[in-house]
Specification:
The protein is built from 13 helices and 20 strands. The chain is an alpha/beta fold. It has three domains: 4-54 and 421-474, Urease, subunit C, domain 1, CATH 2.30.40; 76-268 and 326-349, Alpha-Beta Barrel (TIM Barrel), CATH 3.20.20; 270-324, no CATH class.
């Protein structure tokens, strides 16, 4: 699309400046050239009665595909980053996305699990989703490292950071008995590079009194000892019914100046590989769970009992599954889930999973998506669900705060990356990553039975100034996504 595009007469929400009012927004190429009144452009779009704001930045998306990103585009996302798990080699992840094209901006962290898998289990990483899921059920890499092994996988991660990885993704919850000293060494490496870690923390003391260290306390300690920026992933799902204690711990550390950030998503269920350490039948009780709270993907089978769970874990440890942690219909559980989202400065992040079809494929260029694909509903609905529940239905947040949580705060976590500095806000010179949504209609439609049903209410979505959603419909030929890479300090 050539020439300028004017979004005329909308309610502009800019969490960067705090502006919330009627204005025009002029897009010129991949930048916003002006925000004001009575502007003109080569083409004008009447957005009166609609909200105009910076596109949402998802720090925690595992979709890494055109199919998954299209669902996220209709959820208002303009940048989808795989930071909790990461990929390895990171160069392969960037190369694959560039060659295939992406509707949304993309980026990756260095994969702690893959680096340890290569050194401790001899599994050469290939930046492939199925390989990464299978690794989660491999006990070989979950042990503590010898000093020589530690040095080798730290060197691998250092190389990934030099290649532009957006920090280090750390799946400690999948290797919860590993030596805590290794995490401190990793945090020191990240601090020296000036980059964050994004951690799925190990078990809490309430769930496993024998844990080497409480998972959330571990990132507080590492931040204090090394000065590294510690990002606590999905505090809702790892804290579970102990979330109030965890949030208080993190709040104290942050009030004392520790560089700790956090994220949550608005669902009571998580998703992972069925071979994950914490889904062992003998450990489920520590989470307050039973086998029948696990649903296998893509078949939809609900695990009947411990024997069936053990069978599936042995045969296909990398199989994706949904784990019902909270009962979303229970008022007590719903309140706990809500508390993790509304805590000050918590980012909204989806933990989106790829769409998986019965043949185990995770990609399609068809739109609408071919039938039979399944995923967690958070892939399609995280941001619209958050807006529906916390803005439209309960007025917990004003729109300005919602855009701050979904756009501005995630972008500021990424300020070390040059391509992130002009994101998450509006104003002259900002990136033309813009979402236009209907405040009265925006809502999620994805459910656990129909998880690929797209959100509605996003009227327009621009990525680098190019339309990806137009008048509420996805543009299937749009691949304007660009990479975000780090420049290590």
């Amino acid at each position: 699309m050539t020439g300028t595009t004017l979004l005329k007469g909308g309610r502009v929400i800019d969490p960067g400046s705090g502006f919330d009012g009627l204005a025009d927004v002029l897009l010129d190429g991949d930048r916003i050239s002006a925000v004001g009144r009575e502007l003109s452009g080569d083409r004008e779009i009447d957005v009166s009665r609609l909200l105009v704001g910076p596109g949402f930045i998802d720090l925690h998306s595992h979709v890494n595909s055109i199919a998954g990103q299209r669902l996220q585009a209709l959820d208002g996302v303009t940048t989808a980053l795989d930071l909790e798990a990461g990929v390895m080699p990171v160069a392969a992840g960037y190369r694959k996305a560039a060659e295939e094209g992406r509707p949304l901006n993309y980026g990756f962290s260095a994969s702690w699990a893959s680096a340890r898998g290569q050194v401790l289990s001899g599994v050469m990483p290939s930046a492939d989703f199925h390989q990464a899921m299978a690794l989660l059920g491999d006990p070989g890499w979950q042990r503590s490292s010898t000093p020589a092994e530690l040095g080798r996988w730290l060197d691998l991660i250092a190389g990934e950071l030099e290649a532009g990885a957006l920090g280090v993704g750390v799946l400690l919850g999948y290797a919860p008995l590993s030596d805590p000293a290794e995490f401190v060494a990793l945090a020191r490496l990240a601090a020296e590079a000036g980059l964050p870690t994004y951690t799925h923390v190990r078990e809490l003391v309430e769930a496993d009194p024998a844990t080497p260290i409480d998972g959330s306390a571990e990132i507080v300690r590492a931040a204090a000892e090394t000065g590294a920026h510690m990002h606590h992933c999905h505090v809702n799902s790892t804290s579970r019914r102990h979330v109030d204690r965890v949030l208080a711990l993190l709040d104290r550390a942050r009030s004392e100046g520790s560089p700790i950030t956090l994220e949550a998503y608005p669902y009571g269920s998580g998703a992972t590989a069925v071979g994950a350490y914490f889904l062992d039948p003998d450990r489920l009780g520590r989470w307050g769970l039973t086998p029948d709270r696990i649903v296998l993907l893509p078949s939809g089978e609900r695990v009947a009992d411990a024997a069936r769970l053990a069978e599936v874990r042995e045969a296909t440890p990398g199989m994706a599954c949904v784990v019902e942690i909270f009962d979303e219909d229970d008022p007590v559980d719903a309140a706990l889930l809500r508390s993790s989202l509304v805590v000050p400065d918590c980012c909204v992040a989806s933990d989106a999973m790829p769409v998986i079809w019965p043949d185990d494929s995770t990609e399609s260029r068809e739109w609408p998506l071919p039938p039979g694909g399944t995923t967690h509903p958070r892939t399609a609905g995280t941001f619209a669900r958050t807006l529906r529940t916390l803005v439209r239905e309960t007025a917990t947040w004003p729109w300005l705060e919602a855009f701050r949580r979904c756009s501005y705060l995630p972008a500021r976590i990424l300020d070390f990356a040059p391509a992130a500095r002009a994101k998450g806000h509006l104003g002259a010179g900002a990136d033309a990553d813009v979402v236009v949504l209907d405040p009265a209609a925006v809502t999620d439609t994805a459910t656990y039975l129909d998880p690929t049903s797209p959100s509605v209410g996003v009227r327009y979505l621009f990525v680098a100034g190019s339309p990806v959603v137009w008048e509420g419909s996805l543009m299937a030929d749009a691949y304007p996504g660009r990479p975000l890479r780090a420049e290590p300090g």
